[in-house]
Prior knowledge:
The protein has 189 residues and is mainly alpha-helical. It contains eight helices and three strands.
Amino acid sequence: MEKAGQTEGEAHMDETAHMNEAEHKDAAQGAQASRAGEAMPMDEAALKLENQLCFPLYAAAREVVNAYRPLLEALELTYTQYIALMALWEHGELSVGEMGARLKLDSGTLTPLLKRMEARGLIRRARSARDEREVHVTLTAEGQAMKQQALPIPYLLREQLPLSDEEAFTLYKLLYKLLGHAEEGHGPA
């Protein structure tokens, strides 16, 4: 049931949180037992979509990327091209391997992306003089100039998110905690 001023999504979230609190607690206890080497209790509630951590992460990520789309269309950029440019604006020059690690992209995704950006005149790729196997990526003048055009984007996107500054910062910290856990070789949390 929606409360006054509450969106349908917020109402569903409240309803799901109350309905499944016990199921979430059971799943957490099962995960603890598994980490401790004990037999994990099996419950079919664990297979409900609404009990999955992965689903709201996936759906929210899609929604946020979709919110970027109209902001990036003016620059004729995709979201992935935008984050590649952000990495280069921050670091100036990166090897393809460093870019892949920073952007969490494999070479099968990154190489065609960089080729398109190079064809558009935003970046330059060049083999390293020290190691021919390594390719370095730098910005062209056009790619560097685009930084000023992109500057309002984070602020415009932030205005669209239904989170307080405190909630956004908490989410940011939790997401990077998950990413750090996965990078340490523990797999998804």
